[in-house]
Design brief:
12 strands; Isopropylmalate Dehydrogenase; ten-stranded mixed β-sheet; two-stranded antiparallel sheet; Rossmann fold; alpha/beta; 11 helices
């Protein structure tokens, strides 16, 4: 079996409290994986004068995947490189309820869908500025809603939807749907108001859908989709949307099953992927040993699938499932009194 190389970045605040025991569990599986912790963050700044030195970038380039902890600043440059530098355009966020999850829904048992967020475009290009900078363009909306020249002072942000970006993420969604029991793709954005940008995303998706007659396909305006996601999550299979909507809706989807502590994610490109929990670095509970490891462990399972260790991935999922079924060491966000350490120990014992 070919050996794999995985970069591990612990992240900031409370993130190392779940990353360290999760890495220990991965190492205990004795798979042919070399885990590498490169110099990064504050330690890298002290030694090299750079939060993200070239040697760390080179290590990522030479690896098969990255296992990434949540960042609040010091590791951000590495995250940007993992996204834009490695072109990981499909952010895959599963939303699956398991018995024992502390869901606010009366009947969450049918929550089992995946949100795919386009990961590189839309508002997240970060092109912003003062409205005065656009004055010379004399921009006016096509239906005469407003003219920028009459609105200053103020700020702007560029929303960019490209053909290449849309085609690759929508095709990714259809290919993923083919692998799932529920062969269904939903496209959602605000195409009724943003006819040019979001309408472009929807139109390209409509075209691609014609190449997948085996997949059930529909589209919803984003606000209508939100209502449907809450009231009838069982109707969803794979949902794909532009970046900003995907960021918001996937966090909302996590709320349906019991919170962000349960939400794993993987970011996939054509030749690289990295994996991280969808939650943040949780500075408010740093050092308390109560951050929920579930999202991190399930992200690790997604990584093992990507690296072609499906049995090990399924083993982690089954162990996490059993911990929730037993309910003895659940963390406070799930209504328990267990610690991060106790939860991870229980998973490890089951493995």
């Amino acid at each position: 079996m070919t050996s794999k190389r995985v970069i591990v970045i612990d992240g900031d605040d409370a993130s190392p409290e779940v990353m360290l025991p999760s890495l220990a569990i991965l190492e205990s599986l004795q798979l042919p994986i070399e885990f590498i912790k490169p110099l990064i963050g504050q330690e890298a700044m002290e030694q090299t004068g750079n939060f993200f030195p070239d040697v760390t970038r080179d290590a990522i380039d030479a690896s098969d995947a990255t296992f990434f902890g949540s960042t609040s600043g010091a590791s951000t440059a590495a995250l940007f490189y993992l996204r834009w530098g490695k072109q990981t355009y499909a952010n895959v966020r599963p939303c699956q309820w398991l018995p024992g999850y502390n869901s606010p829904l009366a009947h969450p048992e049918n929550c089992d869908f995946v949100i795919i967020r386009e990961n590189l475009e839309d508002m997240y290009l970060g092109i912003e500025g003062d409205l005065e900078e656009l004055a010379g363009l004399n921009l006016t909306s096509r239906n005469a809603r407003a003219s920028l020249s009459s609105m200053a002072p103020g700020k702007f942000a560029i929303k960019a939807i490209t053909e290449r970006g849309t085609r690759r993420v929508v095709r990714y969604a259809f290919e993923l749907a083919r692998k799932r029991d529920k062969k269904k793709v939903t496209v959602t954005c605000k195409y009724n108001m943003l006819h040019v940008s979001d309408g472009y995303f929807r139109d390209i998706a409509n075209e691609i859908a014609l190449s997948y007659p085996d997949i059930e396909y529909n589209t919803f305006i984003i606000d209508d989709f939100l209502c449907r996601m809450i009231t009838h999550p069982e109707d969803l299979g794979v949902v794909v949307m532009p970046n900003l909507y995907g960021d918001i809706m996937s966090d909302g989807a996590a709320g349906l099953i019991g919170g962000l502590g349960l939400a794993p994610s993987g970011c996939y490109g054509d030749d690289y992927a990295y994996f991280e929990s969808a939650h943040g670095s949780a500075p408010d509970i740093a050092g308390k040993n109560i951050i929920n490891p579930t999202a991190t462990l399930l992200s690790a399972a997604m990584m093992l699938d990507y690296l072609e260790f499906p049995e090990a991935a399924q083993g982690i999922r089954r162990a996490v499932e059993q911990v929730y079924q037993q309910g003895d060491v659940l963390t406070p966000d799930q209504g328990g009194t267990g610690t991060t350490t106790e939860f991870c120990a229980a998973v490890s014992a089951l493995l």
